[in-house]
């Protein structure tokens, strides 16, 4: 019998050597006697609506059957809700799944994908899996996209540009005027993905009107998800709005039957119950405002977040802060030596975050961003 531990000569793609591992948010844990809160994954802290749960229970009765591969009902409900043609909708397993479809449909080995950094951790993964190259453009001192620098980074090899707004993990959005100017300057051969995973939490009147921008530009698509505001993270469903050639390509590169029947039913029910869901979103936005104001009152520089999280740009002290929070029962999301992200969760969790942050800052004063070194002179 052969030894399975021996090298059997199987040849794997060399591109895999360039694929970074996705680091998920850690599960909640705490010292004995301390309440544990998980605010590391930008999840909605509320349980699904009772009406949505009832639909999920009903849909579970038919899981012996394959789901509708065309995702017909949800596609039509999305089209009606957004005011776009149904053929402009493509679905996938969360927005990250759709993003993988985008890169698979556009990039050959050696092509380039331009995006801000730090931004969503899946971008370098899906890019490397296609054998393409990431072109990462540093954020500015206030953790915002530098769209002019992103434009300067576009070359003849660029196939896709991703604009994450609000930006995960730092929080700021780009404005409509900024994005419009950027899109006007991007070559029409380059696909621009406006990643709006957190769009439902945006309250700023200067936010991008992304569907308006897509309608006038065949090379612009909008990417959204049901994981965050809708609270369906465990069911993995997202969608894109794009012009027919792009939307058709996304459907071709989708995993057959990837969007399961329970996810489809829950998404439809959630769209129909959005007024009820909006009350929860509004409550999270109000908590976000409270948390940001209190943290800034302590002396923290917190970027202008329009998402359901806040960013602590702590650099080398990121690990110390994450460890201090863990001792208090808070599981945060550390990004190496760049910073730490904290999701707006239950009020009790937010109160612990404020206490931990105040204690940490008192013992470890943090310099404001305008005195810290930046890479804003480097277009990449």
Automatic annotation (TrEMBL):
One Pfam family in the UniProt entry: Aminotran_1_2
Leading EC class: transferase
GO MF annotation: an example: aromatic-amino-acid transaminase activity
Chain ranges of the Aminotransferase class I/classII large domain: 39-344
The protein's required cofactors: pyridoxal 5'-phosphate
GO biological process: L-histidine biosynthetic process
Modified residues (N6-(pyridoxal phosphate)lysine): 228
Catalysed reactions, semicolon-separated: an aromatic L-alpha-amino acid + 2-oxoglutarate = an aromatic oxo-acid + L-glutamate
EC number annotated for this UniProt entry: 2.6.1.57
Alphabetical keyword list: Aminotransferase, Pyridoxal phosphate, Transferase
Family, per entry: Belongs to the class-II pyridoxal-phosphate-dependent aminotransferase family.
Function: Aminotransferase that catalyzes the conversion of aromatic amino acids and 2-oxoglutarate into corresponding aromatic oxo acids and L-glutamate.
Subunit relationships: Homodimer.
Protein name: Aromatic amino acid aminotransferase
Organism of derivation: Pedococcus bigeumensis
Encoding gene per record: hisC
């Amino acid at each position: 019998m052969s030894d399975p531990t021996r090298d059997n000569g199987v040849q794997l793609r060399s591109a895999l050597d360039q694929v970074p591992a996705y680091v998920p948010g850690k599960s909640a844990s705490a010292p004995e006697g301390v309440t544990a809160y998980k605010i590391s994954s930008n999840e909605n802290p509320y349980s699904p609506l009772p009406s949505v749960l009832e639909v999920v229970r009903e849909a579970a009765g038919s899981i012996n059957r394959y789901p509708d591969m065309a995702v017909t009902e949800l596609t039509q409900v999305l089209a009606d809700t957004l005011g776009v043609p149904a053929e402009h909708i493509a679905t996938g397993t969360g927005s990250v799944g759709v993003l993988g479809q985008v890169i698979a449909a556009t990039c050959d080995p050696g092509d380039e994908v331009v995006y801000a950094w730090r931004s969503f951790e899946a971008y370098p993964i899906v890019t490397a899996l296609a054998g393409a190259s990431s072109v990462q453009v540093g954020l500015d001192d206030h953790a915002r996209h530098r769209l002019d620098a992103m434009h300067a980074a576009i070359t003849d090899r660029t196939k896709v540009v991703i604009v994450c707004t609000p930006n995960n993990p730092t929080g700021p959005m780009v404005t409509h005027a900024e994005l419009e100017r950027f899109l006007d300057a991007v070559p029409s051969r380059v696909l621009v993905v406006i990643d709006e995973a957190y769009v439902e939490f945006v309250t700023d009147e200067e936010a991008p009107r992304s569907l308006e921008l897509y309608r006038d530009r065949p090379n612009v698509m909008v990417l959204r998800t049901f994981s965050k505001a809708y609270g369906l993270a465990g069911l993995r469903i997202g969608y894109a709005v794009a012009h027919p050639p792009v939307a058709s390509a996304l459907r071709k590169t989708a995993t057959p039957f990837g969007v399961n029947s329970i996810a489809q039913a829950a998404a439809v029910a959630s769209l129909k119950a959005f007024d009820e869901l909006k009350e929860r979103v509004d409550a999270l936005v109000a908590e976000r405002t409270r948390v940001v104001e209190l943290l800034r009152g302590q002396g923290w520089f917190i970027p202008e977040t329009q998402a359901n999280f806040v960013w602590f740009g702590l650099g080398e002290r990121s690990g110390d802060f994450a460890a201090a929070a863990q001792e208090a029962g808070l599981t945060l999301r550390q990004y190496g030596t760049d910073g730490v992200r904290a999701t707006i969760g239950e009020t009790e969790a937010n109160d612990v975050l404020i206490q931990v942050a105040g204690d940490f800052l008192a013992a470890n004063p943090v310099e404001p961003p305008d005195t810290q070194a930046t890479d804003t002179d480097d277009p990449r």
